[in-house]
TrEMBL record:
Keywords: Lyase. PANTHER family: SLR1343 PROTEIN. The keyword Lipid metabolism does not apply. Pfam families: DPRP. It comes from the Bacteria. GO terms for molecular function: lyase activity. The lineage of its organism: Bacteria, Pseudomonadati, Pseudomonadota, Gammaproteobacteria, Oceanospirillales. This is Deoxyribodipyrimidine photolyase-related protein. The keyword Lipid metabolism does not apply.
Length: 521
């Protein structure tokens, strides 16, 4: 690009999840290049968001704009006050292009289908040169997604994960997996016993001043939900994200794998257990996935006695395997994936999803934590909240909107396959080989939620029987024709058939009663 005084300016748009300081855009300073970062009603309103999620993105955007400016780049940062009269992103771009006498427009490819379509249509209609560039973040390039993932085709994460390990030479020795196996998941399913509870470290929390953002949200009547915190605990800068990564590698990684599926209500001040809570920083691109993986590997290499391979592999699999895998499922099946409903679920989302007011202790704890912190770990999301929605037959549209809104790390490319695919089986098995339905026994085994619950996890029938028990069997029987031939669940149906007709009828009758009063469970 020319640097003469007569050169017109280029406008480069940076979205709220494109805060990648290592992007090639920023290698050179150019006085004729203007970076636009903007708070916009369009992005606060496409779904109702948790207030901490909005605060986290806005504060991270502000911090990124300030860092770019400090590095010598020209930046326009617009708050909701500045963009209040713009109903859409194209309208804002038109305004800025006119005000700044822009000669060309560039944007990083959005990771959400709706934004990609919007910006591509806008660029195509623009009377200026425009250019779409890569975000330079993911470990599988965008133009290779179609080679790995086919539309309307079932894919499985494990095979993909192994290919990614080989591609990036992660945890390999002479082309074979370190430790002689690819996956140590079977070693990573421990519940938290009393002695382990006492050793839980407190999470590293930040104290970012969100008061001005909260004032703007109120002033512009942005509808949010969840607990607002004037001191936001989430990392909103690259330096904070790096601090959180270092804290994880030092204090949490040694026990991450062992307890990654565990849940507890005993240590409320240690609510995130051994989880990294790096997903927001990763999804906003303040951290690069390879950087995170390499730092975790380096931590184990520095202290192999303290961090065994199973802990490390479980973490690497989440990032190199699962995160990249769900992105592939998303792009292979969009548009249309967001409206799949293979199990024809249509019940309304109960009110306690918005206030946590339920007698089911596991749901009370998982929903309550989600509403308080905009966070729950993957088992709370999948096997408690998601499991309940699945076996109760909740409309996946409502489930999607709730998950997309409630979690600080939720962006549609990662939320939609996890929810509609993995959790709700609404894609009919494109992502998962079975429906992740479970009775109360799984929750009892992996948590202490059941010990002080109003309901009795040991009971399948009766007024205080665990709702998960009868709803589970009702779900499995409703969809028997679909699932019965799956070798992973065939044994369950044989067990059911061995029960007396009276016992089976009582369980299904109990489920019918609970389904008739979902709101009051």
């Amino acid at each position: 690009m020319e640097n003469s005084e007569h050169c017109s300016s280029t406008l480069r748009l940076i979205l709220g999840d494109q805060l990648n300081a290592s992007h090639s855009w920023f290698r050179e300073k150019n006085s004729h290049c203007i970076y636009l970062i903007a708070e916009l009603k369009q992005e606060t309103g496409y779904v109702r968001h948790h207030v901490q999620k909005v605060c986290a993105f806005f504060l991270a955007m502000q911090a990124f704009a300030a860092a770019l400016e400090k590095a010598g780049h020209r930046v326009i940062y617009l708050t909701l006050d500045d963009t209040a009269d713009c109903t859409s992103l194209p309208q804002l771009l038109d305004r800025v292009i006119a005000e700044q006498a822009i000669g060309s427009f560039e944007f990083q490819r959005p990771d959400e289908y709706r934004l990609l379509e919007q910006l591509r249509h806008y660029a195509a209609d623009l009377d200026l040169p425009s250019r779409e560039v890569d975000t330079e973040h993911f470990l599988l390039p965008f133009d290779e997604l179609a080679k790995e993932f086919k539309a309307d085709t079932a894919h499985r994460m494990e095979a993909f994960y192994r290919r990614m390990r080989k591609r990036h030479d992660i945890l390999l020795e002479n082309g074979e997996p370190v430790g002689g196996q690819w996956n140590f998941d079977k070693e990573n399913r421990e519940s938290l016993k009393p002695e382990a509870l006492e050793q839980l470290p407190e999470p590293l929390l930040f104290a970012n001043d969100a008061s001005q953002v909260l004032e703007r949200l109120e002033r512009h009547q942005v509808k949010t939900f969840g607990s607002a915190q004037p001191q936001l605990i989430w990392p909103v800068s690259r330096s904070q994200a790096l601090d959180l990564l270092s804290y994880f590698c030092e204090h949490l990684l040694p026990n991450f794998g062992r307890f990654q599926d565990a849940m507890t209500r005993q240590k409320q001040q240690r609510w995130s257990l051994y989880h990294s809570r790096l997903s927001f920083a990763l999804n906003a691109k303040m951290l690069h996935p390879l950087q995170v993986i390499r730092q975790a590997i380096a931590a184990r290499e520095a202290n192999p006695q303290r961090i065994n391979l199973a802990q490390l592999e479980g973490f690497v699999r989440q990032i190199l395997g699962w995160r990249e895998f769900v992105r592939g499922i998303y792009w292979a099946n969009m548009p249309g994936y967001e409206s799949r409903n293979a199990l024809t679920a249509d019940r309304k989302l109960p009110a306690y999803f918005w206030n946590g007011d339920t007698q089911m202790r596991c749901m009370q704890e998982s929903l309550g934590q989600s509403l308080e912190y905009a966070y729950a770990h993957h088992i709370q999301r999948l096997m408690v909240i998601g499991n309940f929605c699945l076996i109760a037959g909740i409309d996946p549209d409502a489930v999607d909107n709730w998950y997309l809104g409630v979690y600080v790390d939720a962006i549609q490319w990662v939320e939609l396959p996890n929810t509609r695919g993995m959790s709700q089986f609404a894609d009919g098995g494109l992502l998962a080989s079975k429906a992740y339905a479970g009775s109360g026994q799984y929750i009892s085994r992996m948590s202490d939620y059941c010990k002080e619950c109003h309901y009795r996890v040991s009971q399948k029938t009766g007024p205080r029987s665990c709702p998960f028990n009868s709803l589970y069997w009702d779900f499995m029987l409703r969809h028997r024709e679909r699932f019965e031939l799956n070798p992973r669940v065939a044994m369950l149906y044989r067990n059911w058939d061995r029960q007396s007709e009276e016992s089976r009828a009582a369980i299904l009758d109990q489920a019918k009663k609970y389904l008739s009063r979902l709101e009051s469970l």
